[in-house]
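Pilot study result, target chain (416 residues):
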Amino acid sequence: MNAIIIYLLKVSLCTGVFYGLYWVLLRKETFFMLNRIYLLISLLLSFILPVVHFPIMENAPENPALSYILLRQVSVGVQQIEKSTPNISLADIIYLFVSIFIFIYLIYNILRIFLLSQKGIKKPIGGFLIIETQVEIAPFSFFNRIFIQSNTEEKDAEEILAHEKVHVRQWHTLDVLFTEALKVILWFNPFIYLYNKSLRNIHEYLADRGVLLQGHNTINYQQLLLGMAIGQPHLVLINKFNHSIKRRFIMMTKSKSNKLALLKLLLMMPLIAGMAMVFSSFRTSGNVPVNSKTASPLFQKEKKTTKQNKIYTAVEEQPSFPGGEEARIQFFIENIKYPEAAKKNGIHGTVFVSFIIEADGTITNVKVLRGFNKECDAEAARVVNMMPKWNPGRQRGKHVAVQFNMPIKFTISKDK
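Predicted structure:
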């Protein structure tokens, strides 16, 4: 669960950066469709960038005892190694509770729209389903359904339908549902709500432009909007006709932005590259600083020097245990034994064992960097020495030596 929360926090960071660019540089421009595309693509990139790996090449440090790639910790129980079981914290419970509540609310609002559709008078017109309703509610559209009050005057209905048809043709409902669904998993992220609001505003700008391009009088259209601006309730998941009136009036009369303003979108590229590098740097270095004086030579393999002069701590393709991480965990489950003396005396702690995966996949230079008990230290190093050949790491197409640090935690259950 913690890994998921960390990922969602990275996503939130990305949304903040991308939305900041929109707010500062693009919000006041009249490239409405491009702004819509930017917001949607930036949301998708916010979910992709934290998991896409861009290799960062680093040379090995002069003192290889100072940094290592940190492998996932395994825990040694009284009888066997066990994968750490995830603990559900209070924060996890609160997150899940709020997410479930928002999801139920989302489904509830979708059902309300379909119930309203069932009660209204349906009139199919040219691929649109016009639904006349007795319910006092602002006109709106939902996919190809256009809802309008049955007592609307014919003149007003013509402009309302022209407006709502633009929403339908451009699939604005999908944008709204997308951002509403994101609230379920990112309800704690304020930028998701800003994305939702900005996309809804852009939808209205596009619809207003579509109405005026059809030849409707601007002043009459604005008067219609003002007349419907007050006192009419609306639903959550809709593009409502009387949304954000003041801002829409400004955009209706604003001169078109200069095409040179499109160059602002190019700033998206360094933003993407910068965030990718930041997240890659976090992934490629799980280094743990260790005082070289604490490294014990007692548990080194007989071969004390690496077969290659250069040792890497970050490579394009990391070495891997045959069968993957689960196979590595299983290997320790089957081979490590909790020392009897340490078990009897209730001794527990974590051993940090470093080793090098050579270019041919063999294990060399095994040593305890930091330990807590002679017997446990020796047992940890013994099993590391037993590991089979790994699939070697690669840098620039060549197999290279890579240094790792493996934490092995010895624990004793409370009932022993």
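One observation from the pilot: The chain has twelve helices and 13 strands. A full batch analysis is planned for the follow-on phase.
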